[in-house]
């Protein structure tokens, strides 16, 4: 029997056809062999400005628009061609090793380990990014891939994406028995060789006298370097390359810490993760559970994972069970056997307090759970096995795998305790700990040569890896933000921490603004297209009521009597959608920012100020475009009809809440405007009552505001709790009404794609804790069966001796609830649309399009619903769901950032006060004596809320003033005091008794219970040897019962 | 069965005159060895060209072309599928237990039936479709062919499965045993067999050889998950593993002298053998089949995985007789019965003729008249069959030769 095989090598086509074969596993479990054919070409340019060969036959742009004005090369028919301009410089920078200039060809690992380096402006220039590398990067890390793409898009660093796999000369066929990695390495070397030869040839052709740049491969793969050397291609490791650059100290710090090939050394502290397949099998079978890992803000050793299978989150106790998960990661957990179940901790455990004296350099002797940590945990177990209802053991779980790391860049500072004193001056590389600002993040080990410089600075760091043999995650410095407490650094830290986009608007965005700028005005001629379908409402007596000093006026109102005795009430909202067209750069930017972020003395706008504070803003005495909702309302606030229209309005006045109140109260004023405001006020009160009757909740959050106008006075005096005037409620009621009316109108038109806002009913178990506490301490019942009953029972939660008690309970109740969220109507069933807090069956955001992107989307949807515009681009549910997801995230972060900013401001104000007092009185303790309320009781401290400043803080044993103490505990004495104090915690009664060692007598001990009013001293202190070394912290000292 | 068989052979009715048939038969049945029309020796196969991996998108594929221009292409595609078990309740605890590697035995408690069906595979996992130009897919020929080839592919387990203890499962379980991933997952194999031209001769050997080659070249993505986990595969196709392991180069050099490297597990191959008189002829051409006394399809395969075992012999998987088309040919008329020759003879013999005639018509071809074609009546002697089997299976026999020849085709 003879067998013959056809020979393909003789085929003329075979040279430029290749294929790529791989296995694709689909989500549905299918496994497919995929074959992609590649047709190799020779016209892919090298993009070097030195090269004339490529330029003459590079592919021409499809759009035919010439972009090569910049290009200095003159080609005969340049006017016909519109070749994408070449990127790589003809005079690339040189280094010591490559004085003639060089182009860089990094491999995938170089990007994986040093993306921060490549992003550093000016550090890496003339980089040839290979398609092979880009694809490999995409498989390994999507975020890094996106960052690299962004880098390629920017011009100044000259990154060129070379499609080496498609070019005949540089395409590499995988050899039999060759691993993918080896093949890719070979591809990189092939490119380097080709570039060199190609440029040589180009220079011969072009009789150029310029030096040919060296083509340098950057790889950390030793084998690759060796082979490259054999093939006479210059190759360097990233480390070696960077060491040859200027400013190398700073750059070297940015290299990813996780070195590949670092053999497993020492002990493995953490259990290995399950294999991906095991995790998938387990999750599908329901024996493993997936959820987001969260760390308790009070105890860094206690994490929890909410999984869909159970109502209550699973506890993850201790580092071992946490198994290298960082708060925010999506993890897979396995429930532990019942004998390991524990109750949540009743103790405050701070990472820095427990692990203060660890040495980052020495790792061989450390255990995952240090002895001290172990002890802290054991004590809890003891308590857990105790008695009371709250202390029932909860199911615990252990992390067995990580589905997605949600690591971001963290702001932190170097723990000075971890820097060795010897090297503080030297430039030697050393390993130090960085304590992130976010307490839920463990400390991060970084290697730096600039430890001395970084001390006392706020720095931005990235986590690179957390290996099994390392107790803490490893990371590297990205950059320094500046000195502690310098305002710039702190504010930037805050914005970075909450991922607020604070860079100025890029030019593409500003290009979308009307060309008239501030001179833009409503066209006088009604025939102008701007007037099309717009109703002229300039005759209505419209006014706006806002906080004082408000510049971005979103809304204005009017009311006028109708002949039939009813009223016409109009709510007019800035017509932002007129200026921000869907899909343009400004729209994309706004959708990304999601919301305007208000900090104490800074506003980070969602839209460029030209729009926000001028063209859109419904300023008084100027004609403006608006989107109006007009109702006919009876005097009993029954809605007869609602109408929506784009309009042109002329606001008569812009009031502050106070001014409006004064005007309404001033009985001498009887002009139409005042009258209409009175009508509005009256109607709003009826509306409010109706809403309350329907079960709307009066919620409370510790809101204070800071007025920064008065520069002379004590800054503390600027801190005010928000005063509520009737006019606040006036505006609020009509905005709610507008939002609800618009929501149902849009929902009628787009039942699948309406952007709505809902507030899910909180599951009753959320209130369990608070409910038991109230029952126990005040004999009050919390009825959570419906929002109405909850509202009623909250109303009953009063304490005649303690007027703030009710607010305190409301604050706590609010925390038990889920947060409201944007969603796309198709994502939930209609009964789920309900807004629990507002007791409305449907709700959306319509009234603040200047500062919220959601409102802008709703504007567009409403415009489409009333036939003003087409529904283009609003109909894709998946896109809307993405928008919703981002908006929810941005809103939450904006809130956090705002609160953090206030906290910072209060701290600074307290500090200023302390310093001023110090000048007068010498040393001592300088704080403000205030009233506080016990919010939570722990085994070794209490949490006190100070309404005056809207802050809450942990009070540890050493911060109590005991009866008999005459001097307030000073900062210096804390350590010593901490050892002398003893406490007794009653988990059933929520009490904590504190006494000095050996003096447990009732008369010399202090007893505190939940909800109690206490006298506190609030001051700002400099922390020492803790997380915030050299950083200020608001310290609260309990002086005694109030 | 009868109409099927008839149809399958009817399609093959040769259009030869009785004289031609007789000539062919006589030369094939010569007592001192056949003389084949194309001059081949009785065990010699027709030359063929073969190649594998011709369909890049398939898991395995092959093409074989005979010198007469008939060609066949076989493409094989594998899909992951969940095994439906009587009780599909896998406790993950079990999974852990199995991870301890001490899985062998111990848990027979949970139903031997479930286990055996999951570990030995089910014949429905192999799906075969045959397309022959000019035939509908429910015509007798393709149906019969596919059943015959499938039988040897999936049926081998029943004969070969000796012990089902954990250690040896999969090795003796035949093709379907190879498709088991774990107790809950398996591969489903689709064999698409395509004859490119209308069949000139009975296409079974061509299709069988091509299928064999395609199976040899079939690769399945490499499994990354372990044991009872939901399967997860390596996305590197180069890492994919052969369904039938290939001889490793290292093994070749080491074992090269002692035993040929092909002594590995091989998919079955079905050979067509005819007998003419006492002669046995392999790989018959169309003309040869037309006059065969009997036509047999003999399937052989090798299922022993231990390369060192010298008893790694070929195994007979099945024998099927195929209705010989010669049965339906027109008989030749001997001179003695021919009217034209009869007329020339004297009337004195009329009585004899008259007495002979009824018997000859009743008997059809009662006696052989040399040089006059008689349609074959089928049937084959026991000793002849055992000789055939011996020729196929013996060391250095035709079976080995065929396997070796197929092995020589470079698999990619």
TrEMBL record, chain A:
The keyword Hydrolase applies. Its cofactor is Mg(2+). Keywords: Cytoplasm, Endonuclease, Exonuclease, Exosome, Hydrolase, Nuclease, Nucleus, RNA-binding, rRNA processing. SUPFAM superfamilies: Nucleic acid-binding proteins, PIN domain-like. GO terms for molecular function: 3'-5'-RNA exonuclease activity; RNA endonuclease activity; tRNA binding. Residues 534-868 form the RNB domain. Residues 102-226 form the PIN domain. One of its GO terms (biological process) is regulatory ncRNA 3'-end processing. It comes from the Eukaryota. Belongs to the RNR ribonuclease family. PANTHER family: EXOSOME COMPLEX EXONUCLEASE RRP44, RIBONUCLEASE. This is Chromosome disjunction protein 3. It comes from Elaphomyces granulatus.
From TrEMBL, chain B:
Residues 339-350 have a biased composition (Low complexity). Residues 102-123, 324-375 are annotated as: Disordered. Coiled coil: none annotated. GO terms for biological process: exonucleolytic trimming to generate mature 3'-end of 5.8S rRNA from tricistronic rRNA transcript (SSU-rRNA, 5.8S rRNA, LSU-rRNA); nuclear mRNA surveillance; nuclear polyadenylation-dependent rRNA catabolic process; rRNA catabolic process; TRAMP-dependent tRNA surveillance pathway; U1 snRNA 3'-end processing; U4 snRNA 3'-end processing; U5 snRNA 3'-end processing. It is found in: Cytoplasm; Nucleus, Nucleolus. Belongs to the RNase PH family. This is Ribosomal RNA-processing protein 42. It comes from Elaphomyces granulatus.
């Amino acid at each position: 029997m003879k067998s013959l095989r056809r020979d393909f090598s003789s085929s003329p086509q075979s040279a430029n056809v290749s294929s790529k074969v791989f296995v694709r596993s689909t989500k549905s479990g299918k496994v497919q062999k995929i074959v992609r054919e590649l047709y190799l070409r020779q016209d892919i340019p090298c993009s070097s400005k030195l090269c004339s060969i490529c330029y003459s036959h590079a592919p021409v742009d499809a759009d035919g628009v010439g972009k090569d004005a910049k290009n200095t090369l003159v080609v005969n028919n340049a006017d016909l061609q519109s070749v994408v301009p070449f990127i790589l410089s003809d005079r690339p920078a040189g280094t010591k090793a490559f004085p003639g200039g060089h182009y860089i060809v990094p491999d995938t690992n170089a990007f994986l380990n040093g993306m921060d380096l490549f992003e550093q402006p000016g550090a890496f220039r003339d980089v040839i990014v290979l398609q092979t590398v880009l694809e490999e990067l995409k498989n390994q890390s999507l975020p890094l891939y996106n960052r690299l793409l962004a880098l390629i898009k920017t011009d100044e660093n000259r990154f060129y994406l070379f499609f080496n796999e498609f070019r005949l000369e540089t395409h590499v066929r995988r050899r039999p028995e060759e691993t993918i990695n080896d093949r890719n390495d070979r591809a990189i070397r092939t490119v380097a060789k080709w570039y060199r030869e190609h440029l040589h040839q180009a220079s011969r052709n072009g009789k150029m006298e310029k030096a040919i740049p060296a083509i340098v491969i950057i790889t950390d793969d030793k084998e690759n370097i060796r082979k490259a050397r054999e093939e006479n291609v210059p190759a360097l490791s990233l480390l070696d390359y960077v060491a040859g650059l200027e400013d190398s100290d700073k750059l070297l710090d940015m290299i990813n810490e996780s070195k590949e090939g670092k053999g497993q050394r020492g002990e493995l502290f953490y259990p290995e993760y399950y294999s991906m397949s095991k995790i998938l099998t387990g999750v599908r079978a329901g024996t493993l559970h997936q959820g987001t890992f969260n760390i308790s803000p009070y105890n860094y050793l206690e994490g929890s994972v909410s999984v869909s299978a159970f109502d209550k989150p699973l506890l993850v106790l201790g580092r071992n069970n946490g198994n290298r998960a960082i708060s925010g990661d999506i993890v897979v957990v396995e429930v532990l056997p019942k004998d390991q179940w524990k109750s949540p901790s009743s103790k405050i455990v701070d990472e820095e307090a427990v692990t203060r004296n660890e040495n980052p350099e020495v790792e061989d002797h450390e255990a995952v759970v240090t002895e001290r940590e172990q002890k802290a945990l054991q004590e809890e177990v003891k308590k857990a096995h105790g008695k009371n209802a709250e202390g029932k053991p909860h199911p615990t779980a252990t992390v067995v795998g990580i589905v997605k790391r949600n690591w971001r860049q963290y702001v932190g500072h170097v723990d000075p305790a971890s820097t060795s004193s010897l090297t503080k001056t030297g430039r030697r590389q050393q390993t130090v700990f960085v304590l992130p600002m976010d307490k839920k993040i463990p400390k991060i080990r970084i290697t730096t040569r600039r430890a001395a410089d970084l001390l006392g600075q706020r720095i931005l760091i990235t986590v690179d890896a957390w290996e099994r043999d390392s107790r803490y995650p490893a990371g590297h410095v990205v950059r320094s933000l500046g000195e502690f407490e310098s305002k710039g650094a702190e504010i930037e830290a805050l914005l970075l921490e909450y991922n607020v986009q604070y860079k100025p608007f890029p030019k593409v965005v500003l290009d979308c603004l009307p060309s008239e700028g501030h001179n833009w005005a409503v066209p006088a001629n009604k025939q102008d297209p701007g007037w099309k379908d717009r109703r002229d409402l300039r005759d209505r007596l419209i006014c706006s009521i806002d906080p004082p000093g408000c510049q971005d006026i979103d809304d204005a109102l009017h009311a006028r009597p109708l002949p039939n005795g009813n009223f016409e009430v109009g709510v007019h909202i800035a017509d932002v959608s007129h200026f921000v067209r869907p899909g343009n750069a400004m729209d994309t930017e706004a959708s990304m920012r999601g919301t305007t972020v208000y900090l104490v003395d800074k506003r980070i706008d969602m839209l460029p100020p030209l729009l926000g504070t001028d063209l859109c803003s419904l300023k008084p005495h100027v004609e403006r475009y608006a989107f109006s909702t007009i109702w006919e309302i009876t005097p009993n606030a029954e809605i007869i009809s609602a109408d929506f229209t784009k309009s042109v309005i002329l606001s008569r006045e812009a009031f502050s809440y106070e001014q409006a109140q004064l005007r309404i109260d001033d009985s001498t004023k009887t002009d139409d405007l005042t009258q209409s405001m009175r009508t509005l006020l009256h109607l709003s009160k009826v509306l409010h009552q109706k809403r309350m009757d329907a079960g709307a909740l009066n919620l409370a959050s510790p809101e204070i505001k800071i007025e920064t106008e008065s520069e002379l006075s004590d800054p503390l005096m600027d801190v005010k709790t928000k005063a509520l005037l009737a006019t606040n409620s006036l505006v609020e009621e009509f905005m709610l009404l507008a939002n609800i009316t618009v929501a149902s109108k849009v929902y009628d038109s787009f039942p699948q794609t309406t952007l709505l806002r809902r507030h899910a009913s909180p599951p009753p178990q959320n209130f369990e804790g608070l409910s038991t506490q109230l029952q126990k301490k005040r004999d009050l019942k919390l009825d959570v069966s419906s929002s109405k009953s909850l509202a009623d029972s909250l109303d009953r939660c009063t304490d005649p001796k303690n007027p703030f008690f009710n607010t305190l309970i409301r604050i706590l109740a609010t925390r038990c609830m889920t947060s409201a969220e944007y969603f796309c109507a198709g994502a939930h069933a209609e009964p789920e649309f309900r807004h629990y807090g507002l007791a409305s069956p449907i709700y959306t955001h319509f009234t603040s399009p200047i500062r919220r992107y959601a409102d802008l989307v709703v504007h567009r949807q409403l415009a489409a619903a009333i036939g003003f515009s087409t529904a283009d681009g609003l109909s894709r549910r998946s896109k809307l769901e993405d928008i919703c997801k981002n908006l929810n995230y941005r809103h939450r972060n904006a809130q956090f950032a705002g609160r953090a900013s206030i906290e910072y401001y209060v701290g600074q104000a307290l500090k200023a006060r302390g310093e001023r007092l110090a000048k007068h009185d010498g040393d001592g303790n300088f704080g403000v004596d205030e009233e506080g309320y016990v919010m939570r009781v722990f085994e070794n401290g209490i949490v006190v809320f100070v309404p005056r400043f809207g802050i809450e803080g942990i009070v540890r044993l050493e911060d109590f003033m005991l009866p008999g103490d005459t001097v307030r505990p000073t900062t210096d004495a804390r350590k010593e005091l901490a050892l002398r104090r003893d406490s007794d915690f009653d988990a059933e009664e929520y009490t904590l008794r504190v006494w000095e060692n050996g003096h447990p007598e009732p008369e010399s001990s202090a007893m505190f219970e939940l909800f109690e009013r206490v006298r506190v001293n609030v001051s700002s202190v400099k922390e020492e040897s803790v997380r915030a070394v050299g950083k200020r912290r608001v310290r609260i000292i309990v002086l005694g019962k109030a | 069965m009868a109409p099927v068989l008839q149809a399958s052979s009817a399609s093959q009715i040769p259009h030869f005159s009785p004289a031609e048939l007789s000539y062919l038969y006589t030369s094939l049945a010569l007592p001192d060895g056949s003389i084949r029309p194309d001059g081949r020796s009785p065990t010699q196969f027709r030359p063929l060209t073969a190649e594998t991996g011709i369909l890049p998108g398939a898991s395995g594929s092959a093409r074989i072309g005979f010198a007469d221009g008939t060609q066949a292409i076989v493409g094989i595609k594998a899909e992951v599928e969940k095994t439906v078990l009587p009780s599909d309740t896998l406790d993950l605890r079990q999974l852990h237990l199995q991870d301890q590697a001490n899985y062998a035995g111990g848990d027979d408690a949970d139903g031997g039936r479930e286990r055996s069906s999951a570990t030995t595979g089910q014949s429905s996992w192999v799906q075969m479709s045959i397309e022959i130009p000019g035939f509908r897919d429910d015509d007798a020929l393709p149906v019969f062919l596919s059943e015959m080839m499938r039988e040897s592919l999936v049926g081998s387990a029943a004969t070969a499965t000796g012990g089902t203890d954990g250690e040896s499962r999969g090795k003796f379980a035949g093709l379907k045993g190879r498709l088991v991933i774990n107790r809950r997952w398996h591969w489903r194999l689709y064999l698409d067999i395509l004859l490119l031209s209308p069949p000139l001769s009975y296409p079974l050997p061509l299709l069988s050889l091509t299928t064999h080659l395609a199976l040899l070249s079939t690769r399945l993505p490499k499994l990354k998950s372990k044991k009872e986990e939901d399967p997860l595969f390596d996305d590197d196709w180069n890492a994919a593993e052969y369904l039938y392991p290939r001889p490793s180069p290292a093994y070749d050099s080491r074992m090269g002298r002692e035993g040929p490297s092909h002594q590995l597990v091989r998919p079955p191959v079905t050979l067509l053998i005819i007998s003419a008189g006492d002669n046995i002829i392999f790989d018959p051409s169309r003309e040869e089949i037309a006059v065969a006394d009997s036509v047999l399809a003999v399937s052989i395969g090798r299922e022993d995985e231990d390369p060192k075992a010298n008893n790694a012999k070929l195994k007979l998987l099945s024998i099927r007789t195929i209705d010989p088309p010669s049965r339906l040919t027109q008989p030749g008329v001997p001179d003695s019965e021919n009217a034209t020759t009869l007329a020339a003879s004297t009337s004195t013999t009329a009585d004899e003729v008259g007495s002979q005639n009824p018997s000859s018509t009743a008997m059809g071809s009662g006696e052989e008249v040399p040089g006059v074609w008689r349609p074959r009546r089928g049937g084959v002697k026991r000793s002849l069959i055992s000789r055939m089997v011996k020729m196929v299976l013996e060391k250095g026999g035709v079976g080995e030769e065929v396997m070796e020849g197929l092995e020589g085709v470079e698999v990619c």
